[in-house]
């Protein structure tokens, strides 16, 4: 029973850390688009929420964890992530998808089309 209790505590701490300390709660302040920044509300970063730069792989993995935690009892994971916060994460991921179906790592592709043409097609 002791091992089970420690496991439950570890899951609770992980759930709390992922949802409360790493997830970005707000977009950058001011006119962030003019500063060549992208939305970040709902994303997860490489470090903590103060970092503020979303990473698509971190966001996807953390979203997957939150969805798994949502299927577990509250006694194990504690307070569940609000659905609107999960929707924000999905919005960030969809906003990073390129026209060709690829997924940008942290910012949408923004260079000129001629720059993104593979060498074999020139």
From TrEMBL:
Annotated coiled-coil segments of the chain: none
Gene Ontology MF: a single term: beta-amyrin synthase activity
A GO term from the CC aspect: lipid droplet
Ranges of residues in domain Squalene cyclase C-terminal: 27-116
Keyword list, A-Z: Isomerase, Repeat
Organism: Escallonia herrerae
Protein name per Swiss-Prot or TrEMBL: Squalene cyclase C-terminal domain-containing protein
Lineage start: Eukaryota, Viridiplantae, Streptophyta, Embryophyta, Tracheophyta
Biological processes per GO annotation: triterpenoid biosynthetic process
């Amino acid at each position: 029973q002791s091992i089970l209790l420690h496991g439950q505590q570890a899951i609770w701490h992980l759930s709390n850390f992922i949802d409360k300390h790493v997830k970005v709660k707000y977009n950058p302040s001011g006119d962030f688009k003019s500063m060549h920044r992208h939305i970040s509300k709902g994303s997860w970063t490489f470090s903590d929420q103060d970092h503020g730069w979303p990473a698509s792989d971190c966001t996807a993995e953390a979203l997957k964890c939150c969805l798994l935690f949502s299927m577990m009892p509250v006694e194990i994971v504690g307070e569940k992530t609000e659905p609107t916060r999960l929707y924000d994460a999905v919005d960030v991921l969809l906003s990073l998808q390129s026209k060709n179906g690829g997924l940008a790592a942290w910012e949408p592709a923004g260079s000129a089309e001629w720059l993104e043409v593979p060498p074999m097609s020139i």
